[in-house]
Amino acid sequence: MSAVWPGRRLTPLPMTTLVTTDLIGVTRGRSLPSDELDGYRLAGCGWVPANSALTPQDVIAASNLWGAHGDLRLIPDMASRVTLGNGPDAHAPVLDFIHGDLCETDGREWSTCPRTLLRHELQRYREELGVQVLAAFEHEFNLTDTRGAEAPAFSLQAQRQGAEFGGWLLSALRAGGVEPEMFLPEYGKQQYEITCRPALGVAAADRAVNVREISREIARQLGLGLSFSPKTSEQATCNGVHLHISLQDLEGQPLLYDDHRPDGLSTLGQHWAAGILHCLPALCAITAPTPVSYQRLRPHHWSASHACLGLRNREAALRICPTVTLAGKPLASQFNLEFRAMDATSSPHLAMAVLLIAGRLGIQQELALSTTAEAPSAPLNGEPLQAQEIEALPASLAEALDCLRRCELLVQALPAPLLNTYFALKTEELALTQALSTAELFEHYARLY
Ligand code: GLU
Ligand code: MG
């Protein structure tokens, strides 16, 4: 006779995960029973400093600052919690996570936490400039559905192929407080884009993480392959991340627009853009931070290939976006600048922080836009922008890292431990990938991101 276990029937405990998104844009964390969350509000959970030196290849950079030493705390920012009750797979556990900041065990801030860096920079905007930042990240990605045939670019057929995923994604993003706008088929085969409404401050970068993680969750539940990598194969159209930014005063009034200027860009906006352009090659080391990123930042990829400000020109790294006069929409509140030399192998918090640093330095030093920066408008298949003497972006990660090393403005503005860790892990990543052919590189990063 078999023994009968007298205990209660078990059901899986709902878990809440405290997460940090690190220097390479990977979201990591530790999970606890959701009904014990209250006990973790103030002191968070433990974390290991050397984790910050992880490469995308899951190798900790040998030359990191901590080795086996040290302990940190990951403190949840309760307002950033994302809880999704159900998705397409009714048996999948609830997705419940909270973004957090890393600090020392006595509560002192930790210099290598990207979210803390962004919070500090936003505080400087408020205190030194009287400015708040409204931002939105657009994401493109490849969705691999082996059931479907390929459909024409931007087509209703392509939309229908992605419609089950898209519908669940919009629903989950809305439930997660991400305020999705549109789900659209893109130019490439099985390539889609998701856009969301802008958010103020750190919430904008949290939202970018939420888009990536919720998209991955829905794809996993539907059994689909998904990659945000900037280029997944030789034939693939590139996946960009475009960061739209507007600056406002502390009452929410827009500051980038001036209707007396033909391009609409206010004096403050010009200085801000000039700061970004000044640091642009160096910024790429952080906004386009993997070897495969440089297969995207090339002319005629619709992505961003030149270090200039473009008026509605999609090949410019920084673009003045169009405004719409239909339906009586006010121009100033629509007006924004779009940074396009970015992809999803970057950390949203770190990338947004460095862009803001460069822009703030432009404002504080009253940097001026150069004439070539003001009006590039080469047709996509016409005269290359080089012919107009506009600088090209770095051609490789190694080149971009050299630009960052030489960019005094950024080197002085970034915390030294963060920067050193970044150089250590990126150097390791270059070594780990140097033997890969271009085809292998596409495949490798398509799996990692
Ligand atoms: N796929 C392009 C990129 O890599 C962007 C195309 C668009 O403007 O939507 O950035
Ligand atoms: Mg697009």
Descriptive account of the structure:
This protein has 449 residues and is α+β, with helices and mostly antiparallel strands. It has one domain (15-377, 391-448): Creatine Kinase, Chain A, domain 2 (2-Layer Sandwich), CATH 3.30.590. It has twelve helices and 15 strands. It has helices at 114-129, 156-161, 163-175, 202-222, 267-287, 331-334, 348-364, 371-374, 397-406, 408-413, 416-433, 438-448; strands at 15-21, 27-33, 45-47, 72-76, 82-84, 95-104, 131-144, 180-185, 191-196, 199-200, 225-227, 241-249, 306-311, 316-320, 337-342. Strands 7, 8, 9, 10, 11, 12, 13, 14 and 15 form a nine-stranded mixed beta sheet that branches. Strands 1, 2, 3, 4, 5 and 6 form a six-stranded mixed beta sheet that branches. Helix 3 packs across helix 4 (202-222) and helix 5 packs across helix 9. The longest helix has 21 residues, at 202-222. The protein starts with 14 loop residues before the first strand and ends with a helix. Mean pLDDT is 91; it is low at 374-388. The chain binds glutamic acid and magnesium ion (MG). Glutamic acid is lined by residues 140, 237-240, 296, 302-303, 314, 340. Magnesium ion (MG) binds at residues 140, 186, 193.
